[in-house]
Specification:
Blueprint lengths: L3 H9 L3 H12 L8 H28 L20 H7 L3 H4 L3 E5 L6 H14 L4 E5 H13 L3 H9 L3 E5 L8 H14 L4 E6 L6 H4 L3 H11 L3 E5 L5 H11 L2
Parallel strand pairs: 1-4, 1-5, 2-3, 3-4
């Protein structure tokens, strides 16, 4: 029997997994064959694993990924041009420690968002903070923060994210004020934190899409020169999934 006092104190200390494991050990006679230290180690391991899982879930919730994605679920079919060893190396997140960037490039539907989120999830699992946002919404948030005088606080909050994922980069026209705000963001992050940019627009066309060439030079200097590039090829993944679904109906 376990005293209620012990259970209450474990609950007070927020050792919920430890508490559940202790109850399991008492109810299962197989654990009686283990030494005290072995049983204690199992309980501590259980608590550590539960807390680690909880922190990962919390980081993923804060990241606001638009879909469930993971590196182990990526499609490495030859026609996609996705090199397995390269992606698995990136999943180790050494690029985050070095404050490097990743450019995920390809036509509409080739799986850029899924790949970007997969790498973001890998970063969350390794203890890094991640934030996902579509570029059009991101520039809107920056503009709104200027209006309500929270701009500097917003920039500070962005700097706390080890990885910033900007999706649909250059899909929509960039206004001058938005370009200036983006420069502020990249200037703050340069050499300190990492960014993933997903875009269907070729890198060679980015400069011309900015309203000011000087700002364009500054932003590109901070984004593309220290970046790994992942070009995606092949047919639309949405179309392929649609065909697979139809073939099973």
């Amino acid at each position: 029997m376990i005293s209620q006092t012990l259970l209450d104190k474990l609950l007070f200390l927020r050792l919920t997994a430890f508490r559940e494991g202790l109850r399991e050990q008492v109810s299962n006679p197989q654990y009686a064959q283990l030494s005290f230290e072995e049983r204690l180690l199992l309980l501590v391991d259980l608590e550590c694993t539960r807390r680690s899982d909880s922190r990962i879930k919390h980081r993923m919730k804060l990241a606001e990924f638009p879909l469930q994605a993971a590196v182990e679920d990526l499609d490495f079919s030859p026609e996609r041009g996705l090199e397995r060893s390269f992606v698995l190396e990136l999943a180790q997140c050494h690029w985050v420690d070095k404050a490097h960037n990743i450019l995920v490039l390809g036509a509409t539907g080739t799986g850029k968002t899924f790949l970007a989120c997969s790498l973001g999830v890998a970063a969350c699992r390794l203890g890094y903070s991640v934030r996902y946002v579509r570029t059009s919404r991101f520039t809107h948030l920056l503009a709104r923060s200027r209006q309500d005088n929270s701009y500097l606080n917003f920039l500070r909050s962005l700097n706390k994210s080890d990885v910033l994922i900007l999706d649909d980069w250059m899909r929509d026209p960039i206004q001058l004020s938005a370009a200036q705000d983006l420069l502020e963001v990249f200037d703050d992050r340069f050499g300190k934190t990492a960014t993933i940019i997903a875009s269907q627009v070729p890198v060679a066309d980015w400069h011309a899409r900015f309203p000011d060439p000087t700002i364009a030079d500054a932003i590109l200097d901070r984004t593309i020169h220290s970046a790994y590039r992942i070009p995606l090829e092949g047919d639309s993944q949405r179309k392929l999934r649609g065909f697979r679904t139809m073939s099973h109906t």
